[in-house]
Each structure stands twice: as C-alpha cells, then as structure tokens.
Amino acid sequence: MNISNDRRDSNELLYPEPLPLTGYGDGAFRFAEQREAGSLCILPSGIYRWRPALPEEVEETDFDLLIAHRAEVDFILFGCGERQIAPPQWLSRLAALAGLGLEVMPTGPAVRTYNLCRDELRLPATFLLPVE
Question: What are the CA-CA distances from residue 33 to residues 1, 3, 8, 100 (Å)?
C-alpha cells in the first residue's frame, strides 16, 4: 500500500487493518515499513489520516470516525502530542455518552499503550498527534 505524506484528505484510509506502530517522531509515525507524516486515527477498520496537527486544533468533529466503531472498541486513547494536557470537556462528555473510558497522554506513551492493547486484543479508538 502506498502511504502518502500529503495531508489533503482527512480520514483517508491508509491501511485496512490496525497494525502495530513501529516508530514515531520527526512529525510522523511508522507502520508496515512505511512512514506517514502527520496525525493518525486507528480503529478496528484500519489506520486513517487524522486532520489536527496540534492539541489546540482538535475539534469535536475530528472524532466522528469513532461513532461507526463505538461497539468495537474498549476505550478512547488520545495521544495529545509532546506534553500532557487536560482533555477538553467536550471530549470527556463524548466518551461518557458513548460509554467509553478516555485515556489522554503524551503521544509516546500513547503509542506504547496502543501497541500493548493491540497485542492483548483490546483495541482502543486511538487518536495520535505527531511529535518531533
């Protein structure tokens, strides 16, 4: 599968299954022996491009992909970039209304948590902002 670094198509499917992430940093993530610049959303149906690049750019509509997969995920995992932030109130509310737990952590620990959960067959709805 050809993975582009072009950010035009938010929510574009990049890979049709939730593969382990083999690296992150320098504004990108690595999986399937490829590099994808920018943010990612990982769901049971695969790995998608994700629009926001910084925590302050994240909006409620950026989590629309979650709605279709709500029954297939255990919780929401949000890798918020370089530093820990408090989740926006609307994100906490969205998680509560969906009946899902919410874990917000810097992207590095979020990548490791995603890979561990994936190996345990407990797939979170994962939203990751890139880090340098």
Answer: 10, 10, 22, 32
Domain 24-128 = CATH 3.40.1230.10: yes
Query: Could you state, in order of their start, the residue ranges of all structural domains in the chain?
Result: 24-128
Half-sphere exposure for 98 (CA within 13 Å, toward CB): 24
96 phi and psi angles, rounded to 5 deg: -65, -45
Which residues have CB under 8 Å from 78's CB, separation 6+? 87, 91, 102, 103, 104, 105, 110, 127, 128
pLDDT single digits (tens) 106-121 = 999 999 999 999 999 9
CB atoms within 10 A of CB 3: 17
- Tens digit of pLDDT for each residue in 71-94? 999 899 999 999 999 999 999 999
Q: Give the total residue count for the chain.
A: 132
Tokens of 53: 């690049």
Q: Pull the structure tokens for residue 76.
A: 């929401």
